[in-house]
Amino acid sequence: MDVGPVWAATMRPADPRGLHRSAVRLRQGSDPIMHSLLEALTIDRVYLQGEHSGALAGEQALRAAGVRVITVPGAGHNVMFDNPDAFAAAVAGQF
Q: Keywords, A to Z (predicted)?
């Protein structure tokens, strides 16, 4: 993963043990998987991803379930830092 100085700065105050625990749990995943949970919700849903994050696995299934999938230009994993205006517009439903 290619991260920039802004992301690194956000991790500086984090407890390394907490980061490790989060990483281990994320790697283990959930049952059911997060995509299935998101697909099953009956509220308005949006999945934001950065343009530099690559292809989204399961995108077609998310869209078929009514999830709006928005790819934010010029952004990576930290969409809100990389392109804050587009992030705010997408969250407000204006993207």
A: Hydrolase
